[in-house]
Design brief:
Mean pLDDT: 92
CATH superfamily: q2cbj1_9rhob like domain
Largest sheet: 7 strands, antiparallel
Radius of gyration: 18 Å
CATH topology: Jelly Rolls
CATH class: Mainly Beta
Low-confidence stretches: 48-55
Strand content: 15-25%
Bound molecules: fe (ii) ion
Structural class: alpha+beta
Length: 278
C-alpha cells in the first residue's frame, strides 16, 4: 500500500495524505447511509451538544456511554435561545459516534477492507483493534471549531500504538473547515489526557502546560476521496465552517492489542461487545 518514502514522510511529519484512496461511489455510499441514520434518529429529548470544551463534556453521560453505540451529537450553535433547532435536524448534527464500524453494516464494510487492513499493518499495528469511528458533518454556517489537540489525549494506550484515519467524503478546504496540523508536532510529547474519574465524570490531566506553537499550523486541504493518516501525537485542529458547504468526513481509530488500554479512557465497551480487528 505505502512506499518507503510515504512511510518516512509519515514518520517525519506525523501525518500523511493519500489522494484518491477511496472512490467517489464509496464516499457517496457513506454519505447516504449517514443521511439515513440521521433521518431515522429521533432528536426529541436528546439534546447532547458536542463540544471539546471541558464543561460540556464532563457532564455528558450521553457522550460517555457512546463507545459501543451509535449516537448523535448536535452542533453547539444548533439551537435558538428558546431551545428549538436553528436549521433542520439534518443540518444540525455535528457528528455520529462511536461504534458505527461495528454496529452498522455499511460502515462495517467500509472500515474493514483489505486495503485499510494492509495499510494499518504497514504502519506497525500488529494486532489491530478498531476502537472508534465518527461521522463528522461540519455543517454549513454552524459547523463548530475543534480546538488544537492530540488524539492520544482522548484515546490512550501503553505504549502508544494508535492510528487515526481521516477520510474526506467531500472536498475539505480552508473555507469549509479542513484540518490544520503542526508538521512534525508529534515529537512535542503528550500534553494532556482526558480521563474518567472515580465516582463518575471526567477531567483533563495536564502533563505539559506549554502552549501549542499554533503559528506553525498549516492547512491540510484535500479533495474528496483522500485519506489523511494521523499520528496519535500530532497536534491538529479544525476551524469553524461559516461557508455554505458542508465538510463531511469519516474517521477511524485503530489500536494494537499488544498495548494496554487503561480503564481511565473515556471510551468503554460493554463485555458483550468486545473490540474486533479486521
Ligand atoms: Fe482529532
Amino acid at each position: 500500500m505505502l512506499t518507503q518514502n510515504q512511510i518516512s514522510d509519515y514518520d517525519r511529519d506525523g501525518f500523511l495524505v493519500i489522494e484518491n484512496f477511496i472512490g467517489e461511489a464509496d464516499c457517496d455510499r457513506l454519505r447516504s447511509r449517514a443521511a439515513e441514520l440521521v433521518h431515522e434518529f429521533d432528536a426529541r429529548g436528546v439534546m447532547s451538544i458536542f463540544s471539546t470544551h471541558e464543561q460540556t463534556r464532563t457532564s455528558d453521560e450521553y457522550f460517555l456511554e457512546s463507545g459501543d453505540k451509535i449516537r448523535f451529537f448536535f452542533e453547539e450553535n444548533a439551537f435558538l435561545p428558546d431551545g428549538r433547532l436553528r436549521q433542520s435536524k439534518e443540518r444540525s448534527i455535528n457528528k455520529i459516534g462511536h461504534a458505527l464500524h461495528d454496529l452498522d453494516p455499511v460502515f462495517n464494510e467500509f472500515s474493514r477492507t483489505e486495503k485499510i487492513k494492509e495499510l494499518t499493518a504497514e504502519l506497525g499495528i500488529v494486532e489491530p483493534l478498531l476502537l472508534q469511528s465518527m461521522y463528522i458533518f461540519k455543517q454549513p454556517h454552524i459547523g463548530g471549531e475543534v480546538t488544537c489537540h492530540q488524539d492520544a489525549t482522548f484515546l490512550f494506550t501503553e505504549p502508544l500504538r494508535i492510528l487515526g484515519l481521516w477520510f474526506a467524503l467531500e472536498d475539505a478546504t480552508t473555507e469549509n473547515g479542513c484540518l490544520w496540523a503542526i508538521r512534525g508536532g508529534h515529537r512535542l510529547g503528550l500534553k494532556s489526557r482526558f480521563v474518567r474519574v472515580d465516582g463518575g465524570g471526567t477531567r483533563f490531566e495536564v502533563l505539559d502546560k506549554s502552549p501549542w506553537p499554533e503559528e506553525s499550523l498549516r492547512p491540510l486541504e484535500v479533495s474528496k476521496g483522500s485519506l489523511i493518516i494521523l499520528h496519535c501525537l500530532l497536534p491538529h485542529l479544525s476551524r469553524e465552517n461559516r461557508s455554505n458547504k458542508s465538510r463531511h468526513a469519516y474517521t477511524l481509530h485503530i489500536i494494537d492489542a499488544r498495548s494496554r488500554y487503561p480503564a481511565t479512557n473515556w471510551l468503554r465497551r460493554s463485555a458483550t461487545m468486545p473490540l474486533r480487528g479486521f
